[in-house]
Design brief:
With about 350 residues, the protein is α+β, with helices and mostly antiparallel strands. The protein has helices at about 10-20, 20-35, 40-45, 55-60, 130-145, 145-155, 165-195, 200-205, 210-225, 295-310, 320-330, 335-345; strands spanning about 65-80, 85-95, 100-105, 115-125, 155-160, 230, 235, 240-245, 250-255, 255-270, 270-285, 290-295, 315. The protein contains twelve helices and 13 strands. The strands form three sheets. Strands 1-2-3-5-4 form a five-stranded mixed barrel. It has a four-stranded antiparallel sheet with strand order 6-7-8-9, with helices on both faces. It has a four-stranded mixed sheet with strand order 12-11-10-13, with helices on both faces. Strand 7 (about 235) and strand 8 (about 240-245) form a beta hairpin. The two termini are about 25 Å apart. The mean pLDDT is about 85.
């Protein structure tokens, strides 16, 4: 028995957080792949198009988003609509003897300003699409050209400012970097907890009852020496209730427990019932809450009976009377206590 449970709590805390390393590592790998597969870097900081660089050559090099400066823009008289709303105005300009079509946002061109002498914008280089083909067809009629003739003269790529979507881009990168930073923080914390279990939440939660390190050592010694009751992942020693399950770890001084109760969960798929599992809830002093999910009824009943014998002040079973008794002892928590209780609630 001594050999089996030597440093058992510490080993389980380390194993728990080592398993949790997989999720942030996988997520960071996905973010890295997305960064290189999609043009996210050009969205964040669009490269500048050279004055002699055509839209086609830039597009073929992989530059889909860019910042560019144009001079001598002339309104074509045609607009682009999306979902029934005007999202852009088509302009043309000649630079170095090459005609370029530029679609500007309504705010940028002041709702179709006839002439724009100079402007710098960020946008997306687009291939010719249905909207662009309709523009060429309309221009060919205005100029009395054939469709083939104007298609041969006009470029097959154009510059679209509305397709840059600055608001969407901002939200995208807020989500990208925000979740990335969160994953990095989780990764660092999980590594820290795996190397120093006493710093992990199951141990630091004990600060409301005493010194976490001393209480962890005491619980380890009692579990290694003589556990009073042991199930698959729940243990009772002389002074502590201990849980070491795949869902989390917890250490609770028995003398601090106020109320214990259980509830059942029916697991089913469509009309087929698979099984019933039981969750034990423990409420202790200082607004300390934990729950022990997915256990069998006999294990939880044995734990609850033993805890009730070890501490006769514990309320057993879910009832309104027990709830009121527990609330009378706990009192109303301060706002900061509510916050810490919320952090400790799930194991």
């Amino acid at each position: 028995m001594t050999e089996n449970y030597e440093h058992y709590i510490t080993r389980n805390i380390r194993a728990f957080y080592r398993r949790r390393l997989f999720s942030p590592v996988l997520y960071l790998c996905i973010l890295a792949v997305l960064w290189f597969v999609f043009p996210l870097s050009t969205l964040l900081s669009p490269p500048s198009l050279g004055r002699n660089e055509s839209f086609q050559s830039a597009y073929e090099k992989g530059t889909h988003y860019a910042s560019a400066s144009f001079t001598g823009l002339t309104f074509t008289g045609y607009i682009s609509k999306r979902f029934g709303n005007t999202n852009g105005y088509y302009y043309y300009t000649y630079q170095d003897g090459r005609c370029s079509i530029v679609l500007l946002s309504p705010s940028t061109c002041e709702e179709g300003n006839p002439m724009i002498s100079e402007i710098s914008v960020r946008g997306q280089i687009e291939r010719a699409n249905d909207s662009y083909e309709k523009l060429l067809a309309a221009l060919s009629e205005d100029l009395a050209w054939t469709q083939n003739g104007i298609s041969a003269e006009m470029p097959r790529y154009y510059f679209s400012e509305p397709d840059f979507h600055p608001t969407f881009t901002t939200l995208l990168f807020v989500a990208y970097f925000g979740t990335g930073i969160y994953a990095i923080i989780c990764l660092i914390l999980y590594l820290l907890y795996a190397h120093f279990p006493v710093l992990s939440p199951p141990c630091q939660n004990l600060v409301v009852f005493g010194h976490p390190k001393q209480m962890l050592l005491e619980a380890e010694q009692e579990l290694a020496t003589l556990p009073q009751l042991a199930t698959e992942d729940m243990f009772i020693t002389e002074h502590y209730f201990i849980m070491t399950s795949p869902f989390g770890n917890a250490i609770v001084p028995i003398k601090e427990i106020l109320w214990i109760y259980k509830h059942s969960t029916l697991h089913k798929f469509l009309w087929y019932h698979f099984s019933i599992s039981y969750t034990m809830h423990i409420i202790a002093n200082k607004h300390f809450y934990i729950h022990c999910p997915k256990n069998i009824k006999s294990d939880i009943d044995g734990i609850m009976d033993y805890l009730a014998e070890a501490n006769h002040n514990i309320c057993v079973g879910f009832s309104e009377e027990n709830r009121l008794k527990t609330e009378a002892v706990l009192g109303k928590p301060f706002h900061i206590e509510k916050f810490f209780a919320l952090l400790r609630r799930r194991v």
